[in-house]
Recover the amino acids of this structure.
């Protein structure tokens, strides 16, 4: 149950007082500004606080203030809604959520995508490198990751234009060019960096919550045919870089205290710089819908590497992080078929289609399909923490419409 | 020979009127602003033009104006120095180059590193994947590349702190952690994007000079031991992300007309979206010095894929480019040993050390070493176009000094 408020927040709301996620919104008469979701409303934080840092059209300047600044504002907003005396001052700055347009909440600095689900990595290994061990020898030692394209990270709802590129099946002697025939999703959780670090100064596992502000949902759209042809030896490039969609609401780590769980046992034990301090596995359950049919419920709690380990790894060589850095978990897959975080896994490389509620079947995405990823996590006192949703609809490749 | 000027520009200056490269500088009493190098001076463009776009501390706002804006300013500055009548107005805004501190000239949006030298790719293939064909099957079809870390692109002179990380030799059963023992360079040319493009709208080969403003030198520092252990299956990550150094001067494409040459014959013929229009191979010769000894002269003219093809490739899937995007060529190696663009090639994986003029030998870089990369290209009428230099000195890993 959420803490009580003078605002009419449904007792089971996933955007209750225990959550208070941040986003950036516009309305017909308000320029882009920071808002906090509460119940069925958005609080105009720029107007309510009078602090121009929230009127910049991106959360970055606020994020750069660091954990003390984040905690102070969270406490202030919590007080506002818990105490009736604040009602006259706060209520005028509430806007029905239905009336706002949500924007990309952050200016993305660097975008890194990890590969930290053991079941996902094993499934992809079996499909992309048949005949070899599913996990590469480094996987249990190194939180494998790569840099993605920050400039194509967009907010939920951005049209997904089917990418074109080179692809070559093993049976073909040369590549051909055209629209991807194997357009896929990856259901992921993303971490948003607030406080930057210095070049050549690694961030230890223990400093995770000093630098990371919060969490969003990520759909790392993937063109499997482009990816398969290009990825040796330097990794995914055009197979991923056409678009990455994120949810508009950033859930603060502060809202996820009740969701913290112990990560799985790692064998062999990681090197010292990767050893867990306080546990930072998070019991977030995602749901993936294709055209309204629930096709998967990926469990984030079981990820092999946590966000704290990922941050320690990506800075251990001296790389700094910046405000607005986004790093994502990689596709999240559990051990069961209905927990897989991508269609290539769900359909086992197209050999075992997924059935939708209208009776149609999918291996990969078709033009007109709409994918929605949502998630929830336990909050304090039985409340549920919601993450909103990241949605994308598939549009035909440009060549098809020319 | 450079065009004549009232300014005392040595006839053989590589920063003559034919060049006019842009950078960002500070002095004791001037905040970061855009400058143009000419002879032994820097023109304070912000002061000379009175245009505040040049006083922002980064070239990005000027770059975003696009090719008409770039051409107009180049023409204006050329006139200023060719015509004595401008002397009284312009001369007060010249500062001796020795008196300025050069800064990172652009805010880097996305950073992509290609792998477009056939000799480099073949050498690395032989060293990293012995027993297999040196070029992967996709290499002659796809301009192979990957995203690097934009947040660790720094200006020439930034200290190179030896990175730490995981590495495992084939003889070891498990990885160990510590300072890289195989710290290397990659001598590259980088392209700086000015005019952005739209999501889902590929940039054709023919639009290269509409979007790309100019060229800089890049040293893509590489920890070969970290890279070898981590790079399968998602590509280089910590082996590269600790630092990428660029030269402070961006040479406009407009200064490189005389350097344009035909690229090598490609066999098989590339797919249509990659076919050359006007030739965009560039006859730039790099020089790599280690502690003052010239160790290599990598020839850029022979690169398999040009900057125009790289741009067409990286956007063909619908990815957009942004002002400040930087994409680099990959290490440049010619067919001869003294044309190789990395130490792992020059020393053949450490088996054949490079001898320096002080009689010492190098396989990989030692603490205290200083690496300088310079380059020149032909200009109009026999003039030479200089690129300045990108320098880095190696400092001990943090653990060594703790």
């Amino acid at each position: 149950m959420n803490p009580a408020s003078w605002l009419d927040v449904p007792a089971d709301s996933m955007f209750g007082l225990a959550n208070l996620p941040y986003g950036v919104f516009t309305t017909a008469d308000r320029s882009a500004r920071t808002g906090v979701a509460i119940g069925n409303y958005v609080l105009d934080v720029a107007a309510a606080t009078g602090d121009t840092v929230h009127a910049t059209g991106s959360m970055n300047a606020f994020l750069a203030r660091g954990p003390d600044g984040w905690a102070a504002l969270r406490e202030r907003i919590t007080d506002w809604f818990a105490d009736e005396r604040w009602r006259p001052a706060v209520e005028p700055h509430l806007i029905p959520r239905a009336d706002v347009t949500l924007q990309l909440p952050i200016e993305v600095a660097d975008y890194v995508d990890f590969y930290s689900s053991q079941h996902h990595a094993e499934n992809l290994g079996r499909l992309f490198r048949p005949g070899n061990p599913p996990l590469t020898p480094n996987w249990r030692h190194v939180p494998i990751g790569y840099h993605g394209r920050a400039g194509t990270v967009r907010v939920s709802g951005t049209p997904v234009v089917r990418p074109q590129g080179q692809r070559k099946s093993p049976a073909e002697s040369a590549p051909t060019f055209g629209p991807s025939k194997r357009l896929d999703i990856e259901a992921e959780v993303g971490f948003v960096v607030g406080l930057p670090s210095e070049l050549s100064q690694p961030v230890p596992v223990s400093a995770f919550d000093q630098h990371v502000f919060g969490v969003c949902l990520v759909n790392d759209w993937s063109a499997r045919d482009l990816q398969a042809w290009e990825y040796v030896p330097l990794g995914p490039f055009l197979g991923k870089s056409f678009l990455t969609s994120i949810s508009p609401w950033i859930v603060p780590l502060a809202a996820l205290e009740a969701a913290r769980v112990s990560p799985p046992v790692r064998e062999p034990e990681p090197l010292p710089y990767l050893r867990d301090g306080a546990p930072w596995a998070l019991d977030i359950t995602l749901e993936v819908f294709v055209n309204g049919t629930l096709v998967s419920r990926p469990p984030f709690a079981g990820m092999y590497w946590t966000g704290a380990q990922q941050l320690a790894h990506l800075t251990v060589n001296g790389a700094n992080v910046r405000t607005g850095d986004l790093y994502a978990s990689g596709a999240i897959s559990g051990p069961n078929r209905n927990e897989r975080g991508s269609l290539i896994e769900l359909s086992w490389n197209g050999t075992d289609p997924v059935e939708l509620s209208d009776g149609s079947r999918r291996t990969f995405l078709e033009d007109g399909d709409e994918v929605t990823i949502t998630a929830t996590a336990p909050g304090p006192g039985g409340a549920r923490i919601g993450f909103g949703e990241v949605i994308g609809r598939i549009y035909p490749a440009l060549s098809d419409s020319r």
